[in-house]
Amino acid sequence: MSSEYAKQLGAKLRAIRTQQGLSLHGVEEKSQGRWKAVVVGSYERGDRAVTVQRLAELADFYGVPVQELLPGTTPGGAAEPPPKLVLDLERLAHVPAEKAGPLQRYAATIQSQRGDYNGKVLSIRQDDLRTLAVIYDQSPSVLTDQLISWGVLDADARRAVAHEDS
């Protein structure tokens, strides 16, 4: 593995870990010692080669597809990807259940499927937003505005929906 590729792979590993709000020590604790902080850190710096098997296991631990960890695998090539749709789960908990009930259940289902229980944020796909729009009987752009007004989505989400409409 070239050192540049190892560094790019390491940067992706670090990005996923920090997205999940984990320190290197936190990874070791959460994995009950299966993933040593020093080892994960060396993968992230590109100082140590990671086998395909270990990469697959680490992807499973983080709850992401292996291809998300591989350098050069961003969809659409060099084009700037649309902003991610990231639900603020802490803000969602404060929205009255009569408004947010369907979204809360949908988010809980996604968390369960991914094994992602950080409880702070949850990335959703454009397809998820379209499904939620059907549930709420609104267009994706109207639902996006509603979620932004609740404080559950960042205003950048409008760009993601506009990108989808174009």
TrEMBL record:
Protein name per its UniProtKB record: Transcriptional regulator BldD
* InterPro entries hit by this protein: BldD-like_C_sf, BldD_C, Cro/C1-type_HTH, Lambda_DNA-bd_dom_sf
Identify one Pfam family in the record.
HTH_31
In its UniProt entry, the species of origin is given as Streptomyces gulbargensis
Q: Which residues form the HTH cro/C1-type domain?
A: 13-69
